[in-house]
Amino acid sequence: MAVARNLPREDGAFGFTSATAEDIDVFRSIVGEEGLVTDAEDLVPYNTDWMKKWSGSSRVVVLPKTTVQVSRVLAHCHARAIAVVPQGGNTGLVGGSIPTRDEVILSTSRLNEIVAFDAAGGVLTCGAGCVLEALDAYLTPRGHCVPLDLGAKGTCQIGGNVSTNAGGVRVMRYGALRASVLGLEVVLADGTVLDLLRTNRKDNTGYDLKQLFIGAEGTLGVVTKVAIATPPRPTAVSVAILKCPNFDVVLQLFALAKTALGEILSAVELMDSLAVETAMARCPGLKRPMELEDGAFAVLLETSGSCEEHDKAKMGALLDRAFAAEIVDDGVIAQDMSQAADLWAIREHVPVAAATGGYQYKYDVSVPIPRFYELVRAVRRRFQELSLAEDRAAAFGYGHLGDGNLHLNVVCARKDDEVLRALEPFVFDWVVAAGGSISAEHGVGQHKRAFLGLQKGPEALALMAAIKRAFDPRGILNPGKVLPDDPVSQ
Amino acid sequence: MAVARNLPREDGAFGFTSATAEDIDVFRSIVGEEGLVTDAEDLVPYNTDWMKKWSGSSRVVVLPKTTVQVSRVLAHCHARAIAVVPQGGNTGLVGGSIPTRDEVILSTSRLNEIVAFDAAGGVLTCGAGCVLEALDAYLTPRGHCVPLDLGAKGTCQIGGNVSTNAGGVRVMRYGALRASVLGLEVVLADGTVLDLLRTNRKDNTGYDLKQLFIGAEGTLGVVTKVAIATPPRPTAVSVAILKCPNFDVVLQLFALAKTALGEILSAVELMDSLAVETAMARCPGLKRPMELEDGAFAVLLETSGSCEEHDKAKMGALLDRAFAAEIVDDGVIAQDMSQAADLWAIREHVPVAAATGGYQYKYDVSVPIPRFYELVRAVRRRFQELSLAEDRAAAFGYGHLGDGNLHLNVVCARKDDEVLRALEPFVFDWVVAAGGSISAEHGVGQHKRAFLGLQKGPEALALMAAIKRAFDPRGILNPGKVLPDDPVSQ
């Protein structure tokens, strides 16, 4: 078989080989007919993200069932210089799992075996294709839970979660996902199987290689198995949504909650009034917790602990102090798990609502907590200055206040390049100037690679490129993602 | 200046240039006379570890005061192929900060500035040379604490802690140190300053480069600044030492403590009777909490929380259940912070006692929790089989049960090669076969590099070597440490 050249192309053409019918025959010999998707209609959901922002033209999806199959598929693609896009649940928000052209899509969906659960240590080992919600359901009767929770839990896969270091609503309590990952099995670009599948909580034996794959969005290897520390399932959970008249008192409430709720505080989620109203208007079935005048904020507080009596006492004391100090002027405390789910549903439906009807521009950024909401105001001001009035582009903010992770959404009637030009690079410049991060939890993907240099110095980008070359010398893994430029072999 | 060759030497000689008087003049021009140590007597403590297991013959210690000085020193050493050993508080236990020959020692001791503390976010930014205890003292009046605590806190430096991903007694509560490190400033081998000094809790912008330096023991770069997330200081701490008659009930007590103490359980430390008796015999001033017959265990439990009333109720309930179930048959609960310190002092003096008089062999390993104590028994059995009776070599076990991190110490009257041959590779083979890690928290250093291949596959070792070559192509940083072989440039 001829080896295609894989050099930088001055004409901007794609430097990889397109998979031929013969290549697809090879894939078939490895994964069987049931492990292939080639029908044009069936390919559509693999070639597009759920927001319909990015799309590719891949003509084949390969769904291996075992690590050995992943290895053989990659070895073939490596030898032939065929580019490969690893894809999990395809719930990403930055185009990281969508082909840029006609790459082969390697889906981890069938790598969905639960390998082991160590009850004494609380360590779960499973295939990359396990759906997050299914893992949590597996752990529930065993008294444990997954240390992450996000809106896409019913679809996203743990391998994709790990590859993007996914955030969500439990980071405040359990830390970043990378802190819970104890071990990984990864297949490198050339098919080498890298066994880093440790299950020990402590392991200081040289460079922690697995950290490189966590958040690499499939550009350094394909995660095939994950060992993850699972915390004991909290036996007492309480949820409240409180109304704060302005952002200054939101900050006071946050400080008070940290003191009064201490170690049981598990989530502090913020929604501005427009975020709540958008969810209410577009998602029938949500129960309105309170009236929220323009400019006010809803703060969702959650505690997770081991003693209901103690936890209720702490939440009660917090509310007494917050109302007495006039930090909060309205609120709802869930009386049972069903009401708690209703309150969480509002928060979870904000991004769903933003994606319903019209077009949205989404930004996921870290900002210092005192300046958490400033960016939303800056964007609104910019829209006014540029006469992009509210019927054309409306900005709202919500997100994980506890981690300094703001989600800024801009909803428009339709795709609007003028709005986009008003937003980019403005939003990223603002965030970098404020000492934040242009991607808090969603990753880089296709969306932010061009902006990475705003935040990272050339020294850091050079090391990233050096690592990419060392791990994937032909650059076949997820080209056009994460790195500002694709380093390729000479 | 001539550039020395830096190739693998078949004669086993050191492939680096020795620093000459001219080189020392260059260092003097960078750091001044006050930043140099060249006097033979003054060099001794830098050339030896505190256990006196490893020693080097460095003739110069350079103590830069700024990052720029670190950069200039390294650039010179890189150009001249002079090997460099980064050294913090020199409290390591595997020879990682001790020269193997006459490398230049680069001490971080004078990089000890506190750069910033962000009270809203709880983020501390400081120089690598800050002593851990000094940082905790700085944070105390600010209502925060460092997320790690270890016996060497009065001497060890945060840069060394980060470079070794140091463990200690707070891992159960706050996770591994790497989970708390938000940002680093690192100087690479050639003097390049790498600014990764982020302070955001969430930052998913490509490969998390800082993770490579955490635990690299100075082989990939010199950490010069650290930004670390500091948790709120617990306002209620309680400590108890309980006696368990055998290891099976220790495991029952651990399970019960996790349930009853939940999120406030902050430490579960185990000591066998010989560990306690060794501390009592060799460290005057310790207060005996209880009689501990041969074969019994002392378990130190600590809770750290935000509400003294609730926390005391939880600890009381645990003790009632433990005594009622006859899991525990004696114990002491500290009534105040002074008594709590007395109980911790016993645990902290076990390693000190082992280092007092005679000679010790120390092993720091991860093992699955149900098999936590089995290794100690296996070593004792082996000593008996080899007729290395107890007056010649006595093994005891203690450590962080909550993290599966056993410390196995063997005390001898003197250095005893026969005992060493009985222990190595036996201990490492046993740990690997049990699915553990041959280094839980102490790192690899000089001690364990030859054994790394027992635990890591050739694929992982090859990637480690590739990273080393990419970051330090001439191999000048801490040669003879961590990696089984020193990869050098061609």
TrEMBL record, chains A, B:
Belongs to the FAD-binding oxidoreductase/transferase type 4 family. InterPro entries: FAD-bd_oxidored_4_C (IPR004113), FAD-bd_PCMH (IPR016166), FAD-bd_PCMH-like_sf (IPR036318), FAD-bd_PCMH_sub1 (IPR016167), FAD-bd_PCMH_sub2 (IPR016169), FAD-linked_Oxase-like_C (IPR016164), FAD-oxidored/transferase_4 (IPR051264), Oxid_FAD_bind_N (IPR006094). One of its GO terms (molecular function) is oxidoreductase activity. GO terms for cellular component: mitochondrion. This is FAD-binding domain-containing protein. Its cofactor is FAD. The keyword 4Fe-4S does not apply. PANTHER family: D-2-HYDROXYGLUTARATE DEHYDROGENASE, MITOCHONDRIAL. Keywords: FAD, Flavoprotein, Oxidoreductase. Residues 54-233 form the FAD-binding PCMH-type domain. The keyword Phosphoprotein does not apply.
